[in-house]
Structures are given as C-alpha cells and as structure tokens.
Amino acid sequence: MAQEREKFLRQQSCPAKFSEVEAALGKFVEEQRQFQRKIVLVTSGGTAVPLESRTVRFIDNFSIGTRGASSTEYFLQEGYAVIFLNRDRSLKPFQRHFSHQNMLDLLHLDLETNSTSVKKEYESKVSRIVQRYTKCKEQNQLLSIEFQTLGEYLTYLQACATALRPLGSNAMLYLAAAVSDFYIPKEQMPEHKIQSSDGPIQLSLQLVPKMLEPLVSEWVPEAFTVSFKLETDKDLLVPKAKQALEKYKHQMVIANVLETRKREVTLITSQFSFPINLTAEEISRGVEIEERIVQQLKLKHCEFCEKNIPQ
Ligand code: 9Z3
After folding, report:
1. CA distance 143 to 88
2. Ligand 1: which atom is nearest the Cα of residue 265?
3. Which of 29, 67, 88, 122 is most buried, by CB atoms within 10 Å?
C-alpha cells in the first residue's frame, strides 16, 4: 500500500508553481505561529482527472466548492488562519457573494450623475462582507492555493500537511474537496488529443491510493483531522463514515448525502454522532449549514488541544 502511494505521488508531475507555493506556505505558517493563531487547512472543489498528457479532456465531478468557500469564511470569523486549497475556477470566500450576474442586480445607476452605488436594500449585507474581507486581508489570515488536477491536489495536500506539522494539535485539516477515486496512470495515457476518427474509446481507470492514511499517520499526526464522506444512498452513509474513522483513526468524519448536503450533515467521532439540520425557516433566512459545522468544530478542536498540549 505504502509503495503504491509513493509510486503514485512520484508519478505526478510537479505543479509549475510548487516552489513558490512551498515558500509561501512556510512563511504563512511561521507568521500565524507568531500571532499564536490556530490554522485550518480547508480543501475545496473537485479534482480533474486528465485523459491525455497534453490535456484537452478530463473527467470531473459536480463540486463547485460551496462547502469549502463558505466554511473558510466562518473559520476566519472564529479567529482561525486558513490555508484554502481550492480548485481553480471554483467558488472563493467572500467573492462567492458577488457572482457576475448578481453584481449587476446589487448596483443602482444614478442617471443624472452617471454614478453607481450599492442599492439600499443590499447595503448592510454588502458592507458586512466587505468588512470581513478587509479584516482578513489586513490581518493576513488567508492563504489561497489553487489546483486543477487530482495529481496537483494530492501533491499540494502533502505539502500543506507537512508545513502544518510544527503546529501539533493547533492545526486542523478540513478535507471538503471532492476527490476522485479513479485515475489513468501516466504510462497508459496517450500524449496527444484522443481522435474521435479512431472510433469509440474504452477507458480503464485505476484506483487512487487513499492519502488519508499517510496524512494521519505520517504527514501531520498530531493535528485535528476532519474528513467528509459523501454518498448518494443514505443507508450506506453512516456505516461508511464509521468505517473510514476506524480505518484512518482520525478525529471526525462529516457525513453528507449529495442531494441534502446543504441542509443536513452528521458529525461522527469515535464517541458520538451529532446531526446538524437546518429548518426551512433558517434556510429562508439565508443561514448556512457551514456556520453550524464550524461552531461545533471550534469547540471540539479546543477540547482536543486541551488534551494534547501543542509543541
Ligand atoms: C464532501 O462531501 C463535501 O461536503 C461536498 C461539498 C463535496 C459534498 P460542494 O462543493 O459539495 O459544496 O458542492 N466532500 C468530500 C467528498 C469526498 O471525496 N469524500 C471521499 C469519500 O466520500 C473521502 S475523502 O470517499
């Protein structure tokens, strides 16, 4: 198993910006340690699996990174520094509130002076978001790292986890990215674009080695690690989540079903199962389930730190 994992990681080409990212990570972690801030690594979005070396096509998944981007905002609000390892073109913290389309709806044009301003009814919401964003920038609380492919994601995941190691129990990992279970090994991948004139294609995908195992046992063993379990069959969800917890021996699995993930999740540890459900009224008021998740995690992480004095 360990050999397979190492082979897989070795096979991945080093992301173009790897050295730059590694240096930024080291600097960020050191700065946050000086401020005695806890750091959470939030992973977010889907991982693309290339079909060709010079990639035109890839296999992707549904995730647009709502969970990761919104959780990041709530972690920042709770005083954490955040390393946001996210898929390119997925949702970003703060920016997500201003999609291209709703930007125009937010603005009022004064025809006399030809100037624009935020419409009255949106003023308080917009200023709240801008205030939080400004505070997080001023305090240098957020480091964003982008990936596109599965290989880039796993390479950066290892680098981020390793950089967090000196923090001991003050580090949290919140693994919300939707990680592909299947990939095409380099030696089986055509270099050039697959030609449709060659007829239908048959793909043979290999299993991606599970990186949660070395992450928990080697890369960052003292951290508070939270993974997500996603299923479409709700009867499988809790047993699978418990299985993952037993297998990888980390601190928590957050179980969610694809269709209901924005209103229902269950936090599962070796001691308890804690459901979080939003009511229809809360949803209509714009409450986000990530706010509740982050509140619970902050408490659990504090208890964890008290039991495991950081270095
Ligand atoms: C999740 O389960 C996330 O909650 C979602 C968030 C991807 C559903 P969105 O980006 O969705 O807000 O649209 N993430 C983890 C999914 C995953 O790949 N889990 C693996 C598994 O279930 C284990 S690490 O086997």
Report:
1. 14
2. 4
3. 67
ipTM strictly over 0.85?
yes
> Which residue out of 157, 179, 228 has the highest number of ligand 1 atoms within 8 Å of its CB and is therefore the one to mutate?
228
**Residue 120 maps to a domain:** no
Please state, in angstroms and as integers, the Cα–Cα distance from residue 250 to each residue in 75, 135, 172, 243, following that order: 20, 32, 11, 11
Above 60 in pLDDT, residue 264?
Answer: yes
Residues of the domain holding 17: 2-93+138-307
Query: Model pTM greater than 0.95?
Result: yes
Domain assignment of residue 13, yes or no: yes
Minimum-distance ligand 1 atom for the alpha carbon of 62: 13
> Whose CA is closest to atom 25 on ligand 1?
229
Cα 100 to middle of ligand 1, angstroms: 26
Task: Identify the residue whose tokens are 């980390």.
Answer: 250
CATH of the domain at 177: 3.40.50.10300
pLDDT tens-digit map of 29-87:
999 999 999 999 999 999 999 999 999 999 999 999 999 999 999 999 999 999 999 99
Q: Can you give the pLDDT at residue 101?
A: 77
Helix (H) or strand (E) segment spanning residue 100: helix 100-106
* In a domain? residue 109: no
In a domain, 71, yes or no: yes
**Mutation test residue for ligand 1: of 63, 180, 237, 289, the one with most atoms within 8 Å of CB:** 63
DSSP 60-81: --S--SHHHHHHHHHHHHTT-E
